[in-house]
Amino acid sequence: MDDIVSRLTRELGPDAVLLGDDVRARATGWGRPGPCLAKAIVRPRTTDEVSRTLRLCWEAHQPVVPQGGLTGLVGGTVPAEHEIGLSLERMTAIEAVDPATRTMTVEAGAPLQAIQQAADEHDLLFPLDLGARGSCTIGGNVATNAGGNRVIRYGMTREMILGLEAVLADGTVLTSLNKMLKNNAGYDLKHLFIGSEGTLGIVTRVVLRLREKPKSHNAALVAASDFANVAALLAAVDGGLGGTLSAFEVMWEPFYQLVTSEPARNRPPLAYGHPYYVLIESLGSNQETDTERFEEVLGQAMTAGLLADAVLAKSRAERDKLWAMRDDVEQLGRLAPIFTYDVSLPIPTMPGYVDEVRAGLAAQWRDPKCVVFGHLGDGNLHVIVSVGNGDLPTRRKVEEVVYGPLRTRGGSVSAEHGIGTEKRKYLSWSRTEAEIAAMRAIKQALDPRGILNPGKVLEATEIHARA
Amino acid sequence: MDDIVSRLTRELGPDAVLLGDDVRARATGWGRPGPCLAKAIVRPRTTDEVSRTLRLCWEAHQPVVPQGGLTGLVGGTVPAEHEIGLSLERMTAIEAVDPATRTMTVEAGAPLQAIQQAADEHDLLFPLDLGARGSCTIGGNVATNAGGNRVIRYGMTREMILGLEAVLADGTVLTSLNKMLKNNAGYDLKHLFIGSEGTLGIVTRVVLRLREKPKSHNAALVAASDFANVAALLAAVDGGLGGTLSAFEVMWEPFYQLVTSEPARNRPPLAYGHPYYVLIESLGSNQETDTERFEEVLGQAMTAGLLADAVLAKSRAERDKLWAMRDDVEQLGRLAPIFTYDVSLPIPTMPGYVDEVRAGLAAQWRDPKCVVFGHLGDGNLHVIVSVGNGDLPTRRKVEEVVYGPLRTRGGSVSAEHGIGTEKRKYLSWSRTEAEIAAMRAIKQALDPRGILNPGKVLEATEIHARA
Known about the structure:
Two copies of one chain form a homodimer. Chain A is α+β, with helices and mostly antiparallel strands. The first copy, chain A, has 16 helices and 18 strands. In chain A, a hairpin with a 4-residue loop joins β17 and β18. The longest helix of chain A has 17 residues, at 287-303. At the A-B interface, α6, β9, α8, α10 and α15 of A face α6, β9, α8, α10 and α15 of B.
């Protein structure tokens, strides 16, 4: 047995360290059924055990790959043969829900859905929501600064985190479990760990900001005849609905057709033939007056010529159906093999961007499929491309077509999925040399031996390579 | 002339470098009329000039103190004799307001009020607002992560910044002018500079997130008979008003009496005799229905026994009067000499905290004055103490009384004002050794020579002391 593995086994006990087939049988990410190549998976039960694990790995210059619910899309949780996986799967406690401070303190392995339910049981809301809610963990949400469906109202994961505890590469426990909305006592260290994909520390506990639970829901699906109308509609509903707009999800027609045609379970609530369909949702405090307002604002938009067609959800069931349609991303499998992208760019530049991507694809492939949808209110588009046979050379060519036009538009190769290994090559297309150098300086400062998730986000450092 | 000063003068031209009496005549912070002791004040006109200034200072191991509107309260902009001030006063341009992306790009020296007005002219809102709006600059707001009156609705300055440009200690220009709500392409470097009080870089440009301008305003002043009712009221109005609650400002009775009695210009809108007075404000989208909702929610609170008394602002003038009363902090001068504190702590612990502070003061001084008010919805209290003659030994004793009881409550010695030099001694009362060590590691990584605002937030490093 590898020396570090036997030391970890002695330190934490054999049930905490998976080996051999128990490791091989594990997945490593969404759409990555395995085998997991890691030389061991360590499953600590406490922050202290995470600390002791990292201390031993630090001493041995042993690279470690933190793992949460394994629903990431960019390879951020995939270990190589010489690496050890550190899974938070036994640290799932919801330690405290405190309605008085409207906070919840949880271990990092707690699944998002369990957190949503615990908040709900206290008549409060934890607003982060995304398709993987049943499997993803809050630690993974923090590590990737997850976005999801309600960013326009409640922000990214970053905005929902008041404090956290992280273990640094050398095993130092950094406990920063702030519960206040305001705390300007020195640097706000939590931001180092949020969105850095496990490369600067392993998050072990989190203090979440809870919100009052909405008492009213309204939703509508509308169609628009050009992109300028979509943009004007966003401004109109955001202003008109006060602080209650909670989603503004745009579907380009090819996506809408896909999720409303056989074998999809949903039928089209609005006729085909419009270039854009928008799912609009508001969450408020009074069903009667909020519905009145919602209908009034959409009526004004109709009068102003922004809408080509519209249908209001008249019940909870109708609203759920609109969301089920929007969330039915499994239909994308009908286009397989596919490449999926998650980009952000200034809203006014979107139509030109999509045109350029389509033209770029058409220049290289016959009959390319390009399906676009996304959280438009956040500047975030998901672009799904189906061309050729899905092999790696094709993929690289598609990446150039999809990521290239972002460069002149100030866009980002990752809106919400992160960089991992999948997009590392393109980080420099969204960030300057000076920015990447500053990231390296931070990595070097907090993990000088480069043992934490090496090669994710940034190239593995030479220091680690020497170890 | 000092060697570095002459080099800077040659590099930027004589009008960019103030010397002698021109320096002495300057203020260094709020309530600090001067003289400014710096050996020079450099006033660059462009990011490139900031970069050239820092490169020269870096080479010379010359400490630099960045300066904005000089309205800070914690000594963060005060230079010593051997230091050079770097003022952003000639970089005040509002470079672009872009309604399509709802962003504004400004130079760091732009005053907050000019930014508010520019947003307003485009029928948009930049929601940051604080008393110093006419003098403070956005660069200073960013450096201190300023809070203010509407944090409960719109967050701190941090939440309003999409991108920024900063110059690092060695003159490297880090341009990260992101305009999207979502960008997970690597570490989010802006958070390093927000709230680090000019110790990690000098912010030169900022991309601001603008919001739709509210179309309705409602406000009320209410009285409550005990703190549990105040806390329950917060939950009730936050839930009942949907996303529109924009302020929940609590005044303990002594503060209320101070701002409603001669020579203050305002008379008490509600009778004296209640322990707590709360200014509640909502900003929404429809005056008629929002007012109806506002009155309904307060009516329910009254029925539930949460309110001892209430008065609604029936007009813009009445609302402005309520705010003028709350903002009339000049009345605190009647208690001079005073010490002012800005703490945050979990809301449920507040009454016990205030009792403990009062008891601590009464144990040491005869007839101490302790006036409390604050942004309660954010967990933020301002505590004003008047005892003894206001000398430094008295002040240190008062600090122990005010900051001490925060330690067991997980509170912070700085909610929104920052640490500067004034609170440096107490940083360890709100942050662990591990947290402070991590802050030092970051400082060391970005400013290894310790030339940027040395001694602010953290003790000056040995490295700088050796230089």
